Amino acid sequence: MPGYSYGATLYEDMWRGTRSKFTKEIINMLGRSNPLLSKIAGNDNIRGKVGNSGKRVVETIVARAIDNVQWVGFDGLISPSSQNILEQIEWDWKFCIQSFTVLDMVLSVNRSDELVDLLYEMQEAAKAGLRKDFNIQLYSAGIIPPPAGSTAGAKVDPHKMGGLQYLLSENPYKAGLVVLGLPRGGKPGDDYEFWRNRSGQWYSDTWPANDLAKGKALLDTMSKMLDVLHQDGNEIDGIYTNHYFYDLLNAYREEKVVINNISGEKRDYGFTYLSVKGIPVYLDPSCPKNKMFFINSKEIKLNYLEGENVRMHIKEAPTQFAKSYITTFIGNFTCSKPRFQGMLTLRPEAKAAVPVDMLLPKDCNICDFANFVDYDYTVIESQQIGDDGVEMKGYSGSGVPHAPTEPQPAPTPKEPQPVDPTSK
Q1: For 356, phi and psi rounded to 5 degrees?
Q2: Looking at residue 257, what is its pLDDT?
Q3: Beta bridge partners of 202
Q4: Which of 143, 168, 277, 367 has the fewest other C-beta atoms within 10 Å?
Q5: What is the pLDDT of residues 93-112, one digit of tens each?
Q6: Inter-residue contact 323 to 314 (CB < 8 Å)
């Protein structure tokens, strides 16, 4: 804005908000669709916690069932056992700020010829920025990515919240893996299965070559993942993915769908939403390009320190007639039951080239369901047995003897007797 006496940089927003050549309405383009973040909030999973004396929060969780079922005789001896059923998770408070500064004189000029509330719009923009960043954090691993073109690995950012790629693991059996202060890595079937999410990996040499086959593989694996996760009353309420998987699934469904010209069975070919086994599939552009998440949102929580849930502070600038409006948040994401969450990953390399510590064990890979073993359950072998060794024989519950159980020989037929001819 050349020629504006006080400088275009300082007054640009005020000018746009007050000049009569503009409409009185401002077109707000800040609204964003954050399906998982919205669902977490809708489940009342944004919860305040009282601050502790230290920075770290420690919570106790019920980790294991009491596995001491015994079948004994009525006169059998009781043999109780001691078992560890509790574990604890630990996490830190993370501090986030969002700020903007407004010159007092600019705000005064705006209010004297006000068509829009400049301060209100700036506050709305600040909130939109927070929502955008929270959604990014929700899918993050809490790391600092390497610069473009750099061969250096990513580094942990101790100031950021750890989202789904931290709370859930692509390979939950990775040696030495610790999440929320609790060991996760180890051997399939060990004592820490409860702390591992369900996972599946495809590789460049196991991922089909054409889109139709890819769509079928994707749908079949999603169905298997839901079968495994829908146990013990768990309810997955959303599947979250990116454009690649979403478009692939949509194209496959359009290819295979049968539309009947019958009232009540008609379907709009421009599908309004996708679902698998009744579970909605959400498109979220913030989701990593090669991942799909199966989430029970009731178990994902955004914790905040009481009094610091998006709190606004106003500070006077020491050398200007200006105020800084600073919004703060102190909190962190947690997942209370990772066992009931799932993640699918499409890795770009062939299986043989995957680093050993990232290679999912074959019997734990839902994408290779033919070899999958669910270590939460004991498979009962096919068996057949009679009463021998199972039920007592020879008498009824009332003490009345049973008839012999062995087959008895057939009775010897009687010889026919001669008939007396004198008899009548």
Answers
A1: -55, -40
A2: 64
A3: 346
A4: 277
A5: 999 888 888 878 777 776 76
A6: yes
CA 311 – CA 330 distance, rounded (Å): 9
Q: What is the pLDDT of residues 354-373, one digit of tens each?
A: 999 999 999 999 999 999 99
Model pLDDT, residue 309: 79
CA distances from 164 to 142, 150, 415 (A): 9, 25, 90
Separation CA 157–CA 145 (nearest Å):
9
CB 305 within 8 A of CB 49: yes
Buried-exposed string 220-246: b where 16+ CB fall within 10 A, e elsewhere: ebbebbbebbbeeeeebebbbbbebbb
Q: What span, in angstroms and rounded, lies between the C-alpha atoms of 149 and 415?
A: 107
Percent of the chain with pLDDT over 70: 76
What is the distance between the alpha carbons of residues 29 and 128, in angstroms, rounded to a whole number? 10
- Of residues 209, 182, 145, the one with CA closest to residue 337: 182
DSSP letters of 159-188? TSPP-HHHHS-SSTT-TT-EETTEE--S-T
| Longest Cα separation, the chain | 154
